Amino acid sequence: MTNHCIIVSSLTKNFGRIKVFHNADVTIEENTITALSGKNSSGKTTFLKLLSGFLLPCNGKIFVYNHDITQNRVFVKKVVSLVLNTEYGFYPQLTLKENLMFFCKIYNKPFTELYPFIDKLNLNNFLDIPFSISSSGIKTRLWLLSSLIKNPKIILIDELTKSVDYETKQIVYELIKELKTKFGCTILFVSHDINEITSLCDHWIKIEDHKFVVIK
What we know:
The chain is of the alpha/beta class and 216 residues long. It has 7 helices and 10 strands.
């Protein structure tokens, strides 16, 4: 029996006169890696923000583990991590370790529990470097690492491997696969890379004409 951890029904989202989604439906299976693609400005990042409760729909319903996000955003934010991979969200003057320790304190998580993931992401030698001077590859891995602090059931990732080298991509891919197989996470991954989509993801959803089209 298929378990859907995300159900989107008749979703409509506009920004003023700009239409993003119109009566759009889609479901995401639990414990899968799903790729999300589409043209620029098609609504990929907006969709991630809707699923994580940072934005609300104009009409329609979004259920996360049977919780309506418009009624229970607190629950959604507990189980969903959003990885936007931007320059924002960290304190630039603090080191990577100091940033991580700050977020661990917020979520009451011992920093030592991050060490296995720090090892997997090859970040041990960079923990004492300020975020502001870290490379894009290090920042990419830090974003993914920080998303795990609250032990999420669902991880939403916006083009995490954009502008990083081949080696960093492989490190990220291996951890994402492990998050699914070992920890039972559900991952929705925005990507324009066909090789990445076909090799990493179980399912592929495309945004076209303000709706969702299931490719596989």
